């Protein structure tokens, strides 16, 4: 049983490291998407790019499949992140006097 607890401890340490890396990667991703939102708002561009989002979903699903990750899960995760990007872009656009387009977004830097 000691071996099982030792193995569990090692796995959990790796999981903790991965979780920390994911948080840092998401922070960097949102730093980039915020810059995209500012750029779009500054130049009067719409917060949404539906064709890019469609391309990115297909790309992410393909990457997930190649990595033996459930593509449906990957798409759900992307949609979750995109909702947050949308919210940020709408806030940025509103603070720059631009339109707020609820339900639309951009998937920059994916």
Task: Characterize the structure shown.
This is chorismate mutase. One of its GO terms (molecular function) is chorismate mutase activity. With about 110 residues, this protein is mainly α. It has one domain: Up-down Bundle (Chorismate Mutase Domain, subunit A). It is built from three helices and no strands. It has helices at about 1-40, 50-65, 70-95. Helix 1 (about 1-40) runs parallel beside helix 3 (about 70-95) and helix 2 (about 50-65) runs antiparallel to helix 3 (about 70-95). Residues about 100-110 have low confidence and may be disordered.
Could you say what the CATH topology is called? Chorismate Mutase Domain, subunit A
Morphology: elongated
CATH superfamily: Chorismate mutase
State the oligomer. single chain
Q: Largest sheet, described in full?
A: none
Give the proportion of residues in helices.
over 70%
- Number of domain units: 1
Q: Please give the CATH class.
A: Mainly Alpha
Descriptive key words:
110 residues; mainly alpha; Chorismate Mutase Domain, subunit A; 0% strand; elongated; disordered C terminus; EC 5.4.99.5; isomerase; CM_bact; chorismate mutase activity
């Amino acid at each position: 049983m000691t071996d099982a607890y030792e193995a569990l401890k090692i796995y959990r340490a790796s999981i903790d490291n991965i979780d920390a890396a994911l948080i840092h990667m998401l922070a960097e991703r949102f730093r980039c998407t915020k810059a995209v939102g500012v750029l779009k708002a500054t130049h009067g561009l719409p917060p949404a790019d539906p064709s890019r989002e469609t391309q990115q979903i297909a790309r992410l699903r393909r990457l997930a499949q190649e990595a033996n990750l459930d593509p449906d899960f990957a798409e759900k995760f992307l949609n979750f992140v995109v909702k947050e990007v949308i919210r940020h872009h709408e806030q940025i656009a509103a603070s720059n006097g631009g339109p707020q387009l609820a339900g639309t977004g951009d998937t920059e830097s994916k």
